[in-house]
Amino acid sequence: MTPPESVRRVACVGAGVIGGGWAAHFLARGYDVTAWDPAPDAGRKLRRLVDAAWPALTSLGLAEGASTDRLTVTETLEQAVSEAEFVQESAPEKLDLKRDLLSRLDAATPPGVVIASSTSGYPMTDMQTTAADPSRLVVGHPFNPPYLIPLVEVVGGEHTDAAAVSWAARFYEVAGKSVITMDKEVPGFIANRLQEALWREALHMVAAGEATVRDIDLSITEGPGLRWAVMGPMLTFALAGGEGGMAHTLDHFGPSLKSPWTRLEAPELDTELYDAVVAGCEEAADGRSVADLVAERDKGVIDVLRATGRLGREGGPR
Ligand SMILES: NC(=O)C1=CN([C@@H]2O[C@H](COP(=O)(O)OP(=O)(O)OC[C@H]3O[C@@H](n4cnc5c(N)ncnc54)[C@H](O)[C@@H]3O)[C@@H](O)[C@H]2O)C=CC1
Ligand SMILES: C[N+](C)(C)CC(=O)CC(=O)[O-]
Questions:
Q1: Could you read off the pLDDT of 104-119 as tens digits, one per residue?
Q2: Which of 195, 198, 199 to mutate to test the pocket of ligand 2 (most atoms within 8 A of CB)?
Q3: Other Cβ atoms within 10 Å of 77 Cβ, number
Q4: Cys-Cys crosslink for 24: which of 147, 162, 266, 314, Cβ 3.0 to 4.6 Å?
């Protein structure tokens, strides 16, 4: 198994929105990228996506030797992976298709090479059922576009070797990604469960004529979204408790979790959950006081407002 730090050749199988974004990311990080996709015009679309992303990636800073010339679009899947040291699968989100494809990739990829799926939510346990060597199959779930959004969620299936999960996590770090490695297989992983919960509520409100699509998006971009680029939902709500932190937030706003207006089944806010959330926020604060966190949040929000041209307009941020 090639050490993650020594990988030079990456294969991207499935080169649509996400596979193309992965190819752009790996190219910008200086890798040789081979890509295969069965669509007749996939190569042209892939090169168009990469060329469109390249100016932004150049402005962000390319790795030494990075070049779009290091992209090779192959005629067959087997050619794409024959010398790959890592494989990123980004085919359609269809379970049977992924099962068959991962088996094909397993058969065609040199032994010991980790194969990661971009799946948005399928457990690897459900996808690795027919592969001859399921031990090297992991989930490496990206966020669109992978060449700009750093997060990748890594998790194995029941038959995945723990070494493959840790290898993949390390490789993604070396390749410039922000990695969350999950110990438990949870459909939808972490971020999709969170953002799709919000999306479900938004769809309910549109269906009930309670909010327009425009107002739903504005409610985030002009509200919580500004904070979420700087601080996640837990620490953000800890600051809602002022000096009392998350403990006060839970005491003050916990009962509203059971409000009749919510459509989402709320967990029982029992002592175990209460203590876990409070302790988790204290750990995340990492010694920073509430005042430190408030200052950090406010600076970050101002930076985001400025970066998105919303600072200083008449009437303040809009
Ligand atoms: N679009 C998004 O925002 C995100 C998508 N994902 C995941 O990435 C994967 C790909 O999604 P998208 O890129 O959005 O879809 P897409 O439809 O843009 O691209 C899928 C590509 O797969 C190709 N393809 C079809 N059958 C194939 C096969 N048997 N083997 C290889 N390639 C095949 C298609 O020609 C197409 O180019 C899915 O698992 C999706 O859940 C993950 C994160 C975000
Ligand atoms: C819409 N989606 C479920 C495919 C989104 C993702 O999986 C991650 C993202 O890019 O938000």
A1: 999 999 999 999 999 9
A2: 195
A3: 21
A4: 147
